Amino acid sequence: MGDLARVLDVTTETIRKDLKVLEDRGVLIKKHGSATVRNAYYQLPFDVKLQENTVQKQWIARKALDFIQDDSIVYLDPGSTCLQLAKLLRLKKNITVLTNSLPIGDIICDSGLELIMAGGKLQKKGRAFIGYYTTNVIDSIRIDIAFLGCDGFQDMDGPMTFSMEHAEINRHILRQSSKYFAL
């Protein structure tokens, strides 16, 4: 911990506390004098993602809004940037929103816009529905424009997600959409 404290210019007590938080979240395993990452790919809870880079996500959402035509069916992925876009959709006319996100569904429900929830099995950490029932709903709707989030860019080869179920939903969305964008 001493080496890490020197490199980061913080106290060893700060390092100890931070490592404890990461251990409690399941990110790493602490051992005497060391810590090992449990998994290189860790999905943060949705509420944590919502608090990160909020200003940048709002800026991206404002730019994305320009691509949406009135009278469209719009898919919003269960990402935190898409949630920022959901807050702006009331500026458009006659929009129907398809989503598998509980938080986005809640925002759209209060907006006066039409809402179609693609339900299924709830993935609690992401607060989104996944699975056969979700893809079945998606396959029954022609989407004018879809907005997909991602969890990162694996080795800069392109967007990635932590969940195979989420990747499967994205495959169905891409097939059903006339246009799609990664936010």
Please, could you describe this protein's structure?
The protein has 183 residues and is of the alpha/beta class. Helix content is 42%, strand content 23%. It has eight helices and eleven strands. It has helices at 2-8, 12-24, 46-51, 54-65, 80-88, 102-109, 132-139, 164-176, and strands at residues 28-31, 34-37, 73-76, 96-99, 114-117, 121-123, 128-130, 143-148, 152-153, 159-160, 177-182. A five-stranded parallel β-sheet has the order 5-4-3-8-11, with helices on both faces. A two-stranded antiparallel sheet has the order 1-2. Helix 4 packs across helix 5 and helix 7 (132-139) runs parallel beside helix 8. The longest helix has 13 residues, at 12-24. The protein is elongated and about 60 Å long. The protein starts with a helix and ends with a strand. The model has no long low-confidence stretch (mean pLDDT 85).
Secondary-structure map with pairings?
Elements: H1 2-8, H2 12-24, E1 28-31, E2 34-37, H3 46-51, H4 54-65, E3 73-76, H5 80-88, E4 96-99, H6 102-109, E5 114-117, E6 121-123, E7 128-130, H7 132-139, E8 143-148, E9 152-153, E10 159-160, H8 164-176, E11 177-182
Parallel strand pairs: 3-4, 3-8, 4-5, 8-11
Antiparallel strand pairs: 1-2, 6-7, 9-10
